[in-house]
Amino acid sequence: MATNAIDVKKYSPYRFSIEQYYRMAEVGLLAPDARTELIEGEICDMPPIGSRHAATVSWMHRQLLKAVGDRALVFEQSPLRLSRHSEPQPDLMLLRPRRDHYSEAHPTARDALLVIEVCDSSWLYDREVKMPLYAAYGVREAWLVDIGVKTLNCFGAPHGGAFVEQTSMQIPGSLAVPSLDVHVNLARLFSFADYSVS
């Protein structure tokens, strides 16, 4: 009995647009407190934010603010519009200053000077899905902070849909953000909780 080959184009999965994604939230198809992001047309669940993750993001936010001053805006867990079908929510972003502070439209890859993801249980997703996504859309630099194994991975020079430059370190020290010609003090990145508040 002969069977017909499946036409891949005819049966490819449906990809949601950003407009459809927002509409789904408006009409209640997505719960108001749902933690999701749109990745290449697919609605992806984001894991709950654990205390170590939240504390690391907060500490890095303060370090970035100290380093960049008024030269960039620091956004925390906000949308980054990469295409009609992709709007991830990085843990932190350094953005070009803009008069409206991005109140009229979400930032795009051109606006992002640095994107940072902090991960523990989501390491594989962040490394294998989100880092290539950022590279594919031309984000110039991305950091992946793995709090599980206390490692900072730096990705840069996007080319051909991948980051050409990749480095990994366990004691980052003072780390450069080349697009801003500033250094961020991350020497205590994996030990900030060991110090008393001053």
What does this structure look like?
The protein is α+β, with helices and mostly antiparallel strands and 198 residues long. It has one domain (50-194): Alpha-Beta Complex (tt1808, chain A). Helix content is 21%, strand content 28%. The protein contains three helices and ten strands; from the N terminus they run H-E-E-H-E-E-E-H-E-E-E-E-E. It has helices at residues 18-26, 51-68, 123-136; strands at 36-39, 42-45, 73-76, 92-95, 112-119, 141-146, 151-159, 162-169, 174-177, 182-185. The strands form three sheets. The protein has a six-stranded mixed β-sheet, sandwiched between helices. Strands 1-2 form a two-stranded antiparallel ribbon. A two-stranded antiparallel ribbon has the order 9-10. Strand 1 (36-39) and strand 2 form a beta hairpin. The longest helix has 18 residues, at 51-68. The radius of gyration is 19 Å and the shape is globular.
